[in-house]
Amino acid sequence: MVASSQLTAKRPRAIANWLLVVAGMVVLILVVGGITRLTESGLSITQWNPVTGALPPLTDAQWQAEYARYRATPEFRFEAGPAGMTLEHFKFIFFWEWFHRLIGRLIGLAFALPLAWFWVKGQIPTGYKPRLVALLALGGLQGTFGWLMVRSGLSGQMTDVSHFWLSIHLTTALFTLAGLVWTALDLIALHRHPASRPRHLRLDALLLGAMLLVQLVLGAWVAGLNAGHVTRSWPLMDGRLVPEVDSGGHGTLYTLTHDPFLLHFLHRWWAIAVLMAMIWFARSIRGFARLPAAALNGVVGTQVVLGILTVVSGVSLWIAVLHQLVGALLVATFAWAAHAKGRERWLR
Questions:
Q1: CA–CA dist 4, 40 (Å, integer)
Q2: What is the C-alpha to C-alpha distance for residues 67 and 86, in angstroms, rounded to an integer?
Q3: pLDDT band (50, 70, 90) for residue 1
Q4: Helices (DSSP H) in 203-316: which residue ranges?
Q5: Cα–Cα dist 335/319, whole Å
Q6: What torsion, rounded to 10 degrees, do the Cα atoms 347, 198, 141, 268 define?
Q7: With contact defined as beta carbons under 8 Å apart, do 128 and 187 qualify?
Q8: What's the farthest any 2 CA atoms get from each other in the chain?
């Protein structure tokens, strides 16, 4: 009776539901971030004002001031300006970057305020406070990485953000998403079985997660370098299985991290390796976790198909956005399947 009342006071299921809502918001911001990238909107806001920046320009004078700041960026001077950008088009790209940042602010509030409430009410189960604080810190770090990414494209001669900062910004968001899902699943298990303990990541899941991380970084680099546009053919790249790679005298490391043809090639074929590994992993858990196994198979297969369609469509906006959406869902689904795998030993 005492244990039951303590469990009710701690409310692990309520906290799990809250974390899943925040995870859904993270998926949303990843989709909007993809649109922001694909519409070349990321550099339209040249300042980081966490509080006052929540409101868009409301008067013509404010719009003109924002537009003037954008016209001073390398992107406008070397690309957008010569293409004949109008104020109306600037408002369009400004909206996506503003909306992207607004969702980030809302995620911060949606996490911090309920966390404070559950904390003050003493409803957070034992051992979960450090993990929740770490997730909050990851959210703050993500905002900082986002600004450092934007700033990388506002100075010097660069007309795009650094693809390195883009990959850090993206993978931090996806790692946060996985952490939210994993913690929610631990809390759901605690709600169902008060004696259950947090699951641990097994070695095979860790290795597969590392493979997925490599693919996510490659995808971010492909996006950051516009390498998706280098070919519209699949499986060959303009008649060749392996594209010609020109190091330009920069050396192997530079080529591996900057050559768009090579990165496109690596991204498309590492995806097949990840696909096969994911299918094997799903098979290893289907005997005791049929639903996450089926979900993992379905999501990873869909993601590969969308990747191919993105290439052959010439990076069609909405196909590419779907590719990013399903990529986020793949991370969440993998976290679900890996969590189930961590349960295997406990069930036996």
A1: 54
A2: 10
A3: very low
A4: 203-224, 252-258, 260-285, 290-312
A5: 24
A6: -10
A7: yes
A8: 73
Q: Which residues pair with 237 in a beta bridge?
A: 240
The domain locations on the chain are: 1-198, 199-348
Contact assessment for residue 222 and residue 258, using Cβ atoms and an 8 Å cutoff: no
Q: Tell me the average pLDDT across 214-218.
A: 97
* Cβ atoms < 10 Å from Cβ of 156: 8
230 φ/ψ angles, rounded to the nearest 5 degrees: -70, -20
pLDDT of 144 above 70: yes
User: For 282-289, which contacts have Cβ atoms below 8 Å and span 24 or more sequence positions?
Assistant: 282/337, 284/204, 284/341, 285/337, 285/340, 285/341, 285/344, 288/340, 288/343, 288/344, 288/347, 289/337, 289/340, 289/341, 289/343
Using pLDDT thresholds of 50, 70 and 90, give the confidence band for residue 211.
Answer: very high
Instruction: Give tens-digit pLDDT for 92-141.
Output: 999 999 999 999 999 999 999 999 999 999 999 999 999 999 999 999 99
Give the span between the Cα atoms of 142 and 158, in whole angstroms: 22
Tokens of 190: 């605690």
How far is Cα 111 from Cα 265, in angstroms, rounded to an integer? Answer: 39
